[in-house]
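Sorry to interrupt, but I need a hand with the structure work. Please put the record directly below this note.
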Amino acid sequence: MASIKRSNFFLYVSWVTAMIATFGSLYFSEVRGFEPCDMCWYQRILMYPLALILGVAAYHSDVKIKKYALPLSIIGVGTSLYHYSLQKFPSLATASPCSEGVPCNMQYINWFGFVTIPFLALVAFSFISVFLMLARKGE
């Protein structure tokens, strides 16, 4: 019985992480006025549905959702890692998919010399992926 609660806990933490990332993203764009680049939009496309489906899964204690949510979060890890690389390694910017609007290598924030918005997304997607893997079916 305790392990069922453990799985629910990991689902809940995954959902809270997705909500914090979603609201953080909206804060940066709507309150601070930072216009998202193309790569930021791809990350939003992957994160925003996670906030909804993980919330429903946590409410219903449905660990089976991980077969749908885990691919989104793993793709999000890759997307965020690529975006972060574009910011930290300027030589990669020539291969960037961003051709119009805000350049993907622009850093609106750079806390401690390494924490940028794509880094925050990378951490959130990584946490969600790990928590979903820890949520085990049938426990």
User: Anything to note?
Assistant: The radius of gyration is 16 Å. The chain has a mean pLDDT of 87. Residues 81 and 122 are 6 Å apart (CA to CA). Helices lie at 2-31, 38-60, 66-88, 117-134.
